[in-house]
User: What shape does this take?
Amino acid sequence: MARSKALLNVLNLVNTQELPIEKQFLNDLKASIELQDVKNSRKPSQTYKPSSLHCIRNMEYQRMGVPLLGYRTSNELIGICESGTDRHERLQEACIAMKANNIDCEYINVAEYVKQRKLDYLEVVSQQGNETKLFHKGLNMSFLCDGIIKYKGHYYILEIKTETSSKWWERQGVNPDHILQGTAYSEALKINEVIFLYENRDSCNKKAYLLVVTEPMRERLVDKIHECEEYVANNIIAPKPLDVPKKYCAYCQYSERCKQDG
Ligand code: SF4
Assistant: This one.
């Protein structure tokens, strides 16, 4: 509701301004992209997401289905997400084509892998193109897996990331922000190694780094989820973690609610 109101305000503002026609068009286009996104958006599921496991309070809000007070997306962010999705699909297709080009790399069907390995705690929710949506019943966690590859006889989870030029040029290893996400995939799929493929959004240059997930890493993650489940079950708001980097709070969808909870 708050998001729709904010958008209507944008539209009203635009309509009352006397702008050149091309500027009016541009403003209307941007407003329409945001309105369409609101129309298409669904209520987020009350499950854990591997990319949002940094803050236990954020995790709890997600599980409780707390409304996103005052939060709204932007047409820029919508476009970045769309172009990221497009590049994911192309890079997945490129990985699939490796085999036909006589490279020892096989793109594994994730749903079949789950069945063959009898990972019964995983539910295959859907398969869209090369992306498989999975639900971990034991951990109440849902996620989209970019893929599993068998490269030179060894299984790896593949995780594709697109990022800004400046971040990409500085990159010298797996982004620390992505380690929990890789750990969650590893815990779910019982594969220890994750290849992160980072693509520069401007130039399409690529870098790849390997994350080796250890048993203690997985245990810490599972303990954190169990701790959060305790807070949810007892209807207690988790304490605000002192070690959450400010950048997470700056982009947190629950920041308004978090402020209210102190
Ligand atoms: S605002 Fe910061 S501390 Fe609060 S829930 Fe979000 S990430 Fe966690």
Summary: The chain is about 50% helix and 20% strand. The two ends are 24 Å apart (CA to CA). Residues 55, 57-58, 240, 244, 248-249, 252, 254-255, 258 surround iron/sulfur cluster (CB under 6 Å).
